[in-house]
Each structure stands twice: as C-alpha cells, then as structure tokens.
Amino acid sequence: MTPASAQGPDRASAVIADDEPLLRASLRGALREAWPELEIVGEAANGAEALHAVREHRPRVAFLDIEMPVMNGLEAARELGGAAHVVFVTAYDRYAIDAFERGAVDYILKPATPERLGETANRLRSRLADAPRALGALVEELARRIPSGAPPLQWIQASLGSTIRLINVDDVLYFQSDTKYTRVVTADSHALVKTPVRELASQLDARHFWQVHRGTLVNIRAIESVSVDETGRRDIALRGRPERLEVSRTFSHLFKGS
Q1: pLDDT tens digits for the chain (258 residues)?
Q2: DSSP states of 47-112 as a string?
Q3: Secondary structure of residue 239 in the 3-state scheme
C-alpha cells in the first residue's frame, strides 16, 4: 500500500469499509474494472476501523457501508468530516435514494453494478481536487429515515410434505425456481414456497442474499468459493454441500474479484 506521505492531493486512492468480506472483495474487484487507476489503500470491517484507515492512509475517497457493527457508515461519515469524499454503499434503495439525490452525495446500491460504478467513478474523478462535501445535514436525515423502513423478510412459511414449516431466512443456503414453486434449501432439508424468486429478491436483506441467476438467490454467508473456467463461466461451491450453483453472465460482475 502507498504510504500516506506519498498521496498527492489529486491521487485516486480509497478505503473500503464493509463488515462482509465477500462484499468488500466484490466491490474491490468491480472498482478495479470501473476505475483502474484507483488504489485501494485500506479496508475495514466497521466504522471505527474505517476512521482509523482514513486517518492512517489519507485516501481521497471512502466507500462506507451504511450498516456495520461497532460504528455504522453514517456515524463514520459524521466523524470523518471533510477528510475524504464519501460514497455510501447501501441496500436501502426504497427508503433513502431521494435523500441521497437531494444531498448530491454519491451512493452505490448493493450489489454494485458496473454501470453505477462507472458513473460514480466519473463523478469522483472530477472532484478529487476539490474539498470533500460537508455531509452533516444529510447524515442526520438518513439516520432518521433508514431505521423507519420496513425490515427485510426474516421468516418464511414453507411446505414440507403435508406440513407447514416456519424457516428463519438466516438458515437458508439458497432459493431456486422449481416449476411453479421456489425451493428453499437449508443445510439439512428443502421445502417449497409459492413466492417467485423475483419477489423474494425484493423482500430479503440485500446484504446477505444475492441473485446470481434468473432463478437463484444465494446466501453469501454460505459460499465457500467461486470458480471460473476457461470460458469465463462462474459457479459457486457452498460449505458442506455437493451441488454447485451457476452464476449467469448477467450477474457475473458480482464476483469480478474472484
């Protein structure tokens, strides 16, 4: 990593903060393609670590996940003041986007798309020589706004033979379309629900469940590895499971870091 003393005022450098290692790796890989000259000088798993990384490495940009333990991204942004240009990374598109846009602050929705990252990179390039924007008022509005949103789906009623089972979504490894139903696969069983994958994708916590195929949602906490063959096709291996899940080309950008 480049030492802080070597960072020029316009040098493209950044810190990435997210409590999920796979999400950090995905964002890092996607940024490598969208903004090749950007140097990632530090990573953090919570807001407190992000503050330390920014103060140590003095990056021009800080990518802050809003929901992190110890200190969340909003609290970290408040503490950073004008130390770096902040880009919020969020799953709260339904509740916060208008606040982001009114505040003219950059944000990335999880999972990040190449198009959005490209737009963000272009805007940030033009701002590197300017002082970072003051975010105090926006942070206060977001802090009020985000907790009031409807919580993500936590329990699912699924058919298991002739019985109805209540499944905690944290126990689900993946959801997969199966004719007229959706299979709900856990470590020790599978069940069926009538809710289509498309609808589940809008109800689940986007920090933990990624759509990797038109008919597949996977719990990223269950992923052991992602492999790539000579044609660029990616598939996912799950911890303790023999099956592999195909990643369609539409969603392959999620694993550019693999």
Answers
A1: 444 434 555 579 999 999 888 888 889 999 999 999 999 999 999 999 999 999 999 999 999 998 888 888 988 998 888 899 999 988 766 556 666 766 567 888 877 788 889 999 999 999 898 898 878 777 877 777 665 445 688 899 887 777 788 899 999 999 999 888 999 999 998 999 999 998 898 788 888 899 999 999 999 999 999 999 888 899 999 999 999 999 998 888 888 765
A2: HHHHHHHHHHH--SEEEEESS-SSS-HHHHHHHHTTSSEEEEEES-HHHHHHHHHHTT-EEEESSP
A3: coil
User: Could you tell me the CA-to-CA distances from 140 to 36, 65, 66, 118, 150 in Å, in that order?
Assistant: 33, 16, 13, 28, 19
With both helix axes pointing from N to C terminus, report the angle between 93-102 and 136-145 in degrees, rounded to the nearest 10.
160
Q: How many residues does the chain have?
A: 258
Q: Residue 255 — φ and ψ, nearest 5°?
A: -120, 35
* Domains and their CATH numbers in the chain: 4-148 (3.40.50.2300), 155-255 (2.40.50.1020)
Q: Is 119 helix (H, G, I), strand (E, B) or coil?
A: helix
Angstrom CA distances, 29 to 102, 194, 252, stand at 29, 35, 11
Residue identified by tokens 């033009």 is: 126
